Amino acid sequence: MDTMQFIIGKFNYWIYIVLMMIGFYAMIAKRNLVKKIVGMNIFQTAIILFFISTSSKKGGATIPIIQGGHGDAAGHVIDAAQYLNPLPHVLMLTAIVVMVSTFGVALALLIMIYREYRTFEEDEIYETLEVMRLKK
Amino acid sequence: MTTQSPALLIIVPLISAILCLLLGLIRRGLCYPFVVAVLGVSVILSFDVMGTVLNDGVIRYRLGGWDPPWGIEYMIDHLNAFIAIIIASISFVVAIFSRKSIEHELAKGKIIYFYTIYLLLFTGLMGIVVTGDVFNIYVFLEIASLAGYALIAIGRDRAVLASFEYVVLGTVGACFYLLGVGYLYSVTGSLNIMDLTLRLPELYHSKVILIAFAFFMVGLALKIALFPLHVWLPDAYTYAPSTVSAMVAATMTKVGAYVMMRIMFTLFEPYFSIKLLPVTTILGWVAAAAMIFGCIQALAQTDFKRVLCYILIAEVGYIVLGISVGNRAGFTGAVLHILNDAVMMACLFMIAGAIYYKTGMRHIYEFAHLHKKMPVTVTCLVIAAISVVGVPPTCGFFSKWYLVLGAIDARQWFFAFLLLASSLMVAIVFFKMMQTIFFAPAGESAHAHIDEPHKEHKHSRDEAPASMMIPIFIMVAGILLLGIFSGQIVSTVIQFTVPKGF
Questions:
Q1: Is B146 an interface residue toward A (CB < 8 Å)?
Q2: Which of A75, B45, B47, B111 fits a 20 to 30 Å CA distance from B127?
Q3: Which residue, among A37, A109, A117, would best test binding to B if mutated, counting the most B CBs under 10 Å from its CB?
């Protein structure tokens, strides 16, 4: 019963681990280079889920905007339990930028690879390389 | 200006990268002098920062005026400033070297983009070094890596494929690092290194912290190509253009080793990394395996740059071994070896570039009687080689001396023995090379793949142009001078980098 509670209570972390492993599997086991890149993306997305999970709160917590207006009315401080920690979200905005650029560079490399070898299959690329080596 | 130097170290190359692109659109020829000038300014700035650190102690620069735990802080002590000088100087010298080499190896239209990305790579490396914020290190690590992927991919043969492999593994490394940051943040709520140092000791027995530490170590080991995680390095650095190889081989792994030192001994106290966990023992054995493996692989290669790549893997092993023995002499050796190895590797890769530029030869078996054609280059090669082996007047000897002392102080006789054994194996690698160059029988060179035109003027002297030779001379002078003055370097700078508690 306790283990069930443990799994269900922290389901977001379990999903992050599962997603990460799916991505990791694709990066290692798939022979197609595009699938590797997609696996890499899933891997990175799992980390976003992890960071966002750490800032989540149960019970209707919201974004940290001062409710009830500015100026004179802004005197009442909001209870920390009432809002989500925004910092992990901001970190992930930066991380998303990094991940998008990594993805972009990887796709650009894939285009170059395709122009050279006319395939995305790792096995075929290595076959071509072997043939080229023997020709020399 | 002095007070703003830490920020300028990053801002100058970052803005210049964009300006370089615009300048290149006006006139392509402007890029090269512009990049050299910018890097020259960066060298001056890094020395300025070092001067401030030596006179006034640790610099804590608040970026944008925000106070440390909330804003991003640039914290510069002796270790940062020292690494910053290494990175800036090597980038500057390699940039001087780049001109002819890049014109030779790259299509004309790509030169502008090359210099732009080169500056971005420099920005990333500098950022990692000066920042005092763990998340900021991740961002700069990725800026440097992304620039590295792009620069490696413009190389020859299988460069694109090697770069792709590097992208995949490098991303895994960076993601592990990011996860480590996430775990640390989830229990401490802070990202600032100095703030974390204060908050962490009470949490040392928390499992989250242990996992964060493990993620940091594995991620960084991937980034610095520590032995079992080195697979991406030889291909990537072999097929990259010569300039890029010289730059990334000399700087990327060193910066990663610096981050490792920071995390093990500043972020976590030495007590945690040495006593509480068997991290240093594990790292020590891994590093020892890297030293031996790198040398054995280097023996088996024929491509000159690939030999250097495997020696680089062994050198990373030396640095990590110095970190992992966990005492004063070992740490001094590791920091000194970061400097010496950066100079030696930049020198050797530039020599490889000069030989390739002049003769088109890449394999050692083609180098027969090279000393008749390029006597000065071969002299430089010999000096760099004896430095890598570790012969006294050169700088390679002194860092190895400290490393062996560190291993003996730690009562790790076996590591001390492996250090010497691996030096001997490096000696064999280079003696084999020298044998081919100086003593190959005249007939033997015929079987090599040397083109006919090369053969005709094979024995007439024909050195690489001055813009390639001068940087090599600077590095060779560096190898000798750093060796002679290594005592001063240790007493003025490195002794202050040793963490408290050693």
A1: yes
A2: B111
A3: A109
